[in-house]
Amino acid sequence: MSMRFPNLAGAFVLKGAALLFAAAGLLAGAFVAQAQPMIGEEAPLFAAKNTRGETISLEALRGHPVILEWTNHDCPFVKKHYETGNMQKTQRALVEAGVTWISIISSAPGTQGHVSADEANSIAASRGSYADHIILDPQGDLGRLYKARTTPDMFLIDGDGTLLYQGAIDDKPSARHSSIEGAKNYVLAAFQDMQAGQPVREAETKPYGCSVKYAF
Amino acid sequence: MHWLFKSRLFIVSLLLMAMGQSVQAQTPLAAVDNPQTRLEIFAEKTTVAAGEPLWLALRFTPSEGWHTYWENYGDSGKAPSLNWSLPEGWTADAPLYPVPHRIPVGPLMNYGYEAPQSLLVRLTPPAAIPDQPIDLALSAEWLVCADVCIPEYGDLAFQMIPGSGTVAPGMAALFAKARAALPHQSPWQASARISNAAFALDVDMPKDDAALVKSAYFYPVNEGLFGYAKPQAVSYGEDGLQLLVARSGSAPQLGEHDQILRGVLVITNDNGLDEGFEIAAPLSLDTTLVAKSNGLGFSAAGLQIGLFEAIAFALLGGIILNLMPCVFPVLSLKAFSLIRAHGAGEKAARHDGLAYMAGILCSFFAVGVVFLALRGAGASVGWGFQLQSPMVVTIIALILFVLGLNLMGMFEFSSRFAGIGQGLTEKKGLSGAFFTGVLATIVATPCTAPFMASALGFAMVQPAPVVLAIFTSLGLGLALPYVAVAFIPLLRHLLPRPGPWMGVFRQFLAFPIFLTVIWLLWVLGRQNGADALGYALLMLLALAFIVWVWGIAGGRGRRAQIVALGLTALVTIPMIGSSGTFIGFEAGSLVKDIKDQPKAGSYEDKLAVASWSPEKRDQLREAGRPVFVYFTADWCITCKVNERVALADSDVISAVQDGSVAVLKADWTNKDDRIAKELAAFGRNGVPLYLFYPADGSAPKILSQILTPALLLAEFKG
């Protein structure tokens, strides 16, 4: 009998959680159903706070190309690109050419790569990241919106808001540092095609790496 | 060769191998231990002969709970990469992968292996090799993941000695097992089409093979064909097996290399055994291709039943109908008349039984004809469709109400109406028996007996003669128990002897009848609201009044009868005239809004039940949630009982909440073409139907029509 009340309360909490889950599921579902990142079409719009607390809106960035980089600092594939300096090199080249680089962390609380804003900033600083903004997306809404699958997973959006590239950073699906040498950097190639006013030759590649650690 | 036959061979060979393995220990040529995977290399032969291919097995053994990847890893991951260092003139082919498994990770779907598995690699030495040990080396990189991923590496070096090439001890079993795990060559031709909206794989599978398919899943090697987490719909039609996947994203660019589709089709057969088939099919652009929502992941072939089975099911279903609460009183009445006629002749009993059967058969035939006519007119109809019309519900309620009054003894049917309880010796009794048969059919319609849904689902898509055969068989089943009693004197002797108890029992039978009336009125209230319900109750009162008036007038002179006729007209005409306004032929939408909102504290509220639609189901599935769908209707008693017993169970409710199972309700109380189409897609044309869509995006499971908490718990916790 003494168990009765706690049980009741537990049931309420469970019910509340289930309803929340249902609502979140529907919301996420709606996101997925509405927007579909498609090459040559408008990239799905979003507005989110960066780690400095400023609101970043894709629409407000019109006029500048934008790179979205899904990241997770503990993922070995992300590590390869940062420890070899390959990611920073790519960031620097694009940022200096006027691109706004946004790193996005979609790791859910309790999963690999989940960090606080301060942690994210200090990791970026310690790695010498050139990213303009870091967005924390622990609910995975942004990740699901773009159907980000792996870390790293890269998206290039031009100044008009059109999605030009999505997929892997390069053509060497390996975590070995040595694989950077001789790799074809798809993101740089896509950017160069865009600069040259040509259609992007390889606009969609299969991303490789760790799965995005979504909340579910 | 028939593929099922092959799968038996496969099991036998596995057993043999298991025995062989326990005898022979296998020593690898080289091995490397990483934190989460052990990689070993085995050679099939002890020595290598010039120009003769040598098979190697690379066995990856991940730690418990970790997995490695297939050549297409799905949404995330990495295929193993193998770099061979071989002497001049040697070649290594691309590895052969075992049949993969699905590994869902939240909203993502990966393809790989959660158990030890061997990749097979064929090395070919040149035509001449030196007569000394040959150094071979492999540098491998692979990804092993649990919730996190670790890239692991192995540099393995080994030597092969030139020789005639005998099979190494213990290797026959190891290699046979590794080969058995590879996909088989597909015995069927296949082709694939793709558009912006969908991907379709057509497998030219003969009916015999398709009949054994329970579910199927296609693992593509090609990238970008469809989302890996998307449910795959399997159906069987004229052109064989079709697998359809909805897709979105950019229009596919079919380059030089994409003209051929490669992949593995995994088929789960009747015995629940999985078998993989290698598919290499031409892939073409077909802009007209759309993803019809025809019940995702459902294998129509698996449920396809033959004509004979359908007729047998219909017969069995008909027999079971006799026990349903809506039919039982009518059957009791018939038994009653038999008891009364205890002393009557054999012949009379038989005639009565035949007349009853004729009544049932004619009614079922009529239902069949109406069904065909509606189907011909393009309407989606199903078993119980009659009750979607409030007018039909009201008329059945009225008929049953009069029957109840009769049982209570308020009046007796005159011989013109042919009394239900009257003696068999009367000649008029035959039409009475016929009428009872008709009545039994009318009251049976809402009770979907467990076996009937499949039979009627089968009927739905058959040509007219088959439909009528099935309806007739159903009627035969309903009539059979009574006819058996009428024809077999031995059975009749088992019935109790007539006596005063019969009068009491007859009155008692009025109660289940009135119960059915209450239920029908409740259905009507749900369909068209309180106005219609109030109006129907008025009609019952008027009917009772008329019956009472005629009961008095019946025994008197002509004048009394004229008065009764006048009173009847006075009451009936305005009733009939305005019934269309109040009750209507089509169910209204006014109540539907209220119904969609579950009452707080009800089990529907606790289960967070939402209204079903194909879009909502797909959304929930894409969000990675398991989905339970129940197809129901207020007029379906089986459904209501199932829901009370299984869905309202506290363990089931907490399992739903714990597992965040999404519960969707498809309410067919009123006509709804989308629901009718969905039912048809699952080979049904009536409710109930229970579907469970697992979270991993795999094919939905059709659950039993008799739902129990244990059955649901097994699925939800599975």
From TrEMBL, chain A:
Chain ranges of the Thioredoxin domain: 37-192
Keyword Secreted: no
Signal peptide feature range: 1-35
Presence of keyword Chaperone: no
Keyword terms of this UniProt record: Signal
Record Gene3D superfamilies: Glutaredoxin
Molecular-function GO terms, alphabetical: antioxidant activity; oxidoreductase activity
Protein name: Thioredoxin family protein
Automatic annotation (TrEMBL), chain B:
Topology in membrane: Multi-pass membrane protein
GO cellular component, one term: membrane
GO molecular function (one): protein-disulfide reductase activity
Domain Thiol:disulfide interchange protein DsbD N-terminal: 48-156
Transmembrane segments: 310-333, 354-377, 389-411, 432-460, 466-491, 503-522, 534-555, 562-585
BP term (GO), one: cell redox homeostasis
Domain annotation Cytochrome C biogenesis protein transmembrane: ranges: 311-521
UniProt key word DNA repair: no
Keywords linked to the UniProt accession: Cytochrome c-type biogenesis, Membrane, Signal, Transmembrane, Transmembrane helix
Annotated signal peptide: 1-25
Main location: membrane
Location in or out of the cell: Membrane
Annotated protein name in UniProt: Thiol:disulfide interchange protein DsbD
